[in-house]
Amino acid sequence: MNVSHPSVHPVEAPPPLTDGGNVPRLRMKDIQGMPGTIGGLILRFSQFVFAVVALCVMATTSDFPSVTAFCYLVAAAGLQSLWSLLLAIVDIYALLVGRCLQNYRVVSFFAVGDGITSTLTLAAACASAGITVLLGNDLGICSQNHCTEFETATAMTFLSWFTTLPSFLLNFWSLASR
């Protein structure tokens, strides 16, 4: 029977520590889109813009409070815009001062917050899309409602979610790779 045998390669021992064992740990490079990078700031700014546009378009209609899904969209877009604005300010501070935001607690906070806001934003966009399809296609009462505004706000909320998802995935990946 032919069985392959592993080859053993000797490995040299690391040099002894002379400075008391304070060797700096190697960190993962800052990938664009992570907190404290220009890509992260662009993602946060686009999240903020899309959420504010969705919020403003929905708030300008007079009959959005009559549908629970649209009220939920306004609440989720408001939360998303506040969260994105807060983290954009933190990113601007980190870029101006030159701070690295790869602290375990900071990344954990960002990952949990992005996860919560992205889940709420996606749920609100899906619920609003369902109601918009119901009003426009199934019931055919767009002439009595603001279907164009509802569709625009729903699309902006989906775009806000599409820009929130990379932030969440990068933060979660950074957290999981520690």
Automatic annotation (TrEMBL):
Residues 34-162 form the Casparian strip membrane protein domain. Residues 1-22 are annotated as: Disordered. It is a multi-pass membrane protein. Keywords: Cell membrane, Membrane, Transmembrane, Transmembrane helix. Its main location: membrane. It comes from the Eukaryota. One of its GO terms (cellular component) is plasma membrane. The chain crosses the membrane at residues 37-60, 72-97, 109-135, 155-176. It is found in: Cell membrane. The keyword Transmembrane helix applies. InterPro entries: CASP_dom, CASPL-5. It holds the Pfam family CASP_dom. Belongs to the Casparian strip membrane proteins (CASP) family. Homodimer and heterodimers. This is CASP-like protein. It comes from Davidia involucrata (Dove tree).
